[in-house]
Amino acid sequence: MNLKTLDAVNRCKVNHQVYDEMLEKIGDANLLVFTEETMHPENDLHARVFMFTSGHLEEPATGSANGNLAGYLLEHNFLNKNNISYSVEQGYSIGRPSLLKIKAKKNDDNFLIQVGGSIFVVAEGKWL
Hints:
Layout: H1 6-10, H2 16-26, E1 31-35, E2 45-50, E3 58-59, H3 63-75, E4 83-90, E5 98-107, E6 110-117
């Protein structure tokens, strides 16, 4: 969902009872809200992604959700072009700031969407 201000994005809260009822009807889905107002002027969008089952309420950097966002932006001509490149801030509200880089284009009904960014390891393990 596109919101007008960074403050509106930061004030978002999920009513988990209503969310769970909705998911029972439609299936698993994350919620993504975004705005064109950013923390850093060199970035293009600021997003938050609320998770449905991971044990975490919010994701700091979500490639799949931002890939879907690119498809939405293209389908609805949000940026007024069929070939887009932009950066998305995410994770600030949970103290894990992240930056994702998106390149996407639409040709007729075909989409090519690329999502990248930098990460850091928060945990690792071995399969036994």
